[in-house]
Amino acid sequence: MTTVRETNALPGVAAGLLDAETLAANFGDLHPPLGRHEALVEADRCYFCYDAPCQQACPTSIDIPLFIREIAAENPLGAARTILEENIMGGMCARVCPTETLCQEACVREEAEGKPVRIGLLQRYATDAIMQTGRNPFTRAAPTGKRVAIVGAGPAGLSCAHALAVSGHDVTIFEARDKSAGLNEYGIAAYKTPGGFAQKEVDFILSIGGIEVKHGVALGRDIDLASLRRDYDAVFLGLGLAAVNKLGLTGEAASANVLDAVNYIAELRQAEDLASLPVGRRIVVIGGGMTAVDVAVQAKLLGAELVTIVYRRGQEHMKASGYEQDLAQTHGVLIRTWARPVALEDAHGKVSGVVFERTRDENGKLVGAGETFRLDADIVFSAIGQLLTPSSFGGESALKGKDGRILVDEERRTSAPGIWAGGDCIYGGQDLTVGAVEDGKQAARSIDAALRAGLKS
Question: Which of 1.10.3520.10, 3.40.50.150, 3.50.50.60, 3.40.50.720 would CATH assign to domain 4-28+244-385?
């Protein structure tokens, strides 16, 4: 499968279908922030429930009624502190968290009226206010003299690093890419986080001090776990998922127009000129998760005429939330279900179409129905999931895994002494920014307890 960076000019595919002004408008803020009056009106809708179901639904257990009450009292900085104490990436999560299936779905207003309190926008209102001050509300504890190595500067790694730094430990983060933030920088649709917000949040987190980030350093290539365990008092793995699943179709690797959706989104996020990206007029996206929706919607925003998502099961089985599916369809993306790709059609070295077989469920097993159909395509995007490769472990044989991910306990401890892990790389992970932040937070608490126990002994 070819990455976009290797094929800046795809055969038969045009770039610059839209003018700069239209592209800027298309990739503007999906949900403009609330103003002061709007925030106060929205905060007034909250019932401030005791044992609030919204808080129970939040993976990071933010005290939602409290921070909304603080906004209602015109104390947005206090509200931000309440949020950040549980979720240091509350600003990003306010923008990308699927609140419609988490806190807002559990909101009593949703149950009573079908219109929940807009918790995500209120969270953004508070966290934006504190980030605009340029001051980190936390201070470091007295130095402990302990050193922790973190692999990966994504949400899990940054969350873990910040909590450990607050506790007085010195942290070194090793990050393979040129920038920090992981999928928040490279993997989320550009219209969800415009204005370079991911890097602004990284700067905010690192301002606590005590955290060094070394970019361009990859586990298994430049460093290994054996040396990290030797040189540091603890190790946290926030590796993410670097490899991608293949479609398994003949001609997939040879066709320049069969692209990995994750790499394309990363290229789009880093592009200085969106008009330079190859777009195509007829695009087929294979998959049913958030990545499939993100690449499909952005293709439409870049000027593609016909974009179709094809998923092997029913729409209710798609990992993308109902809200995200609606967003795709609102932007003109067609979603076709109960079909799987069986062949790529090639014309002069580039893909010209995809043949699909209709599928059905037989006693819980997906089977082919024998009937096929064809979709024209200038570009085919594969968005069928990512995986962790054994080489990502850096040669550490003591790490136990399951289904291609690292096994951890409730404290995010791995099977190898002195090594913790969290985020997308662990078995049972939620594949959400908010879930990765919680993993990093819980691991930091466990690491801190272990290091302090060592100090006392």
Answer: 3.50.50.60
pTM equals 0.92
User: What are the beta bridge partners of residue 406?
Assistant: 401, 426
Looking at residue 269, its pLDDT comes to 93
Q: Which of 148, 136, 251 minimizes the C-alpha distance to 200?
A: 136
Give pLDDT tens digits for 92-125: 999 999 999 999 999 999 988 999 999 999 999 9
- Start-to-end C-alpha separation, the chain: 53
d(CA 420, CA 387): 19
Please name which of 63, 44, 41 lies closest in space to residue 52, comparing C-alpha atoms: 63
Task: List, for the chain, all residue ranges whose pLDDT scores fall below the cut of 70.
Answer: 1-9, 254, 389-398, 455-457
Extract the tokens encoding 272: 């200085």
CA 180 to chain centre: 13
Collapsing DSSP to helix, strand or coil, 255 comes out as coil
Identify which of 117, 156, 214 has the alpha carbon closest to the alpha carbon of residue 438. 156
Assigned CATH topology for domain 147-242+388-456? FAD/NAD(P)-binding domain (3.50.50)
Taking a C-beta distance cutoff of 8 angstroms, is the pair 219, 174 a contact? Answer: yes
Nearest to 94 by CA among 105, 110, 83: 83
Element containing residue 401 per DSSP (H, E): strand 401-402
